[in-house]
Amino acid sequence: MNERSRESTRQRILSASQKVFAEHGYTGANMRLIAQGAAVSVGCVYLYFKCKDELYLTLLESWMNELDARTTDALENIVEPAEALAAFITTGIVYAREHKEMVLLQGRDLGFARGLEMKQQFLRKRRSLIEDIVRKGVATGIFCDCDPGEAAKLIFCSMRGFIVTMMMGEEALYSPEAGVELLLNGLLRRDTP
Question: Would you indicate the residue range of the signal peptide (predicted)?
């Protein structure tokens, strides 16, 4: 089997596993269902992934890497802090909507506890990025004088609340635009007459 064929098979397995995990949760998913979804044998799945946990963690890591890459791309040429924060918030919310199945998986069964350390590192990194944006906005006078760490926690928690509503089966409570407007209104400096 050539490398291109191997990678194609691996991607089919990952794609099928995402659907199976989203539909059945971590507990209800199994390698047989994943193999059926990928149109390969169960033995073939085990050639690529030694167990369901490894497959799940690979999926999770792939999802985090993709969101990081999108965020990096969105922020790449932005200098102005308010614009950077708007891009960060919008990218995160749009990505969560596009990958609702992965969001739902995090709240089902034992999915939340799996890969907890990896998730914590990822979330700390994202919160730190928000803090850096806020710190720059405060330093340049665009944002009001506030504690960048506390502001980052509030923004981050607001975004996580958006995701939690999706995990509970609710429609998203706000649009990316509404979230950006509300959060920026609390940060933008207003000079009093």
Answer: none
Amino acid at 83: E
Residue 193 has pLDDT above 50, yes or no: no
Residue 170: predicted pLDDT: 59
| CA 15 remoteness from chain centre | 17
CATH fold group of domain 1-50: Arc Repressor Mutant, subunit A (1.10.10)
- For 35-52, write each residue's pLDDT tens digit: 999 999 999 999 999 999
Report the alpha-carbon distance of residue 158 to residue 145 in Å, rounded: 20
Give the pLDDT confidence of 96-152 residue by residue, as tens digits: 888 877 766 665 555 556 778 888 899 899 999 999 999 999 999 999 999 999 999
Phi and psi for 125 in degrees, rounded to 5?
Answer: -60, -45
The rounded distance, in Å, linking the Cα atoms of 67 and 50 is 26
Buried b (16+ CB within 10 A) or exposed e, 84-113: bbbbbbbbbbebbbebeebbbbbebeebee
Q: Which fold has domain 53-187?
A: Tetracycline Repressor; domain 2 (1.10.357)
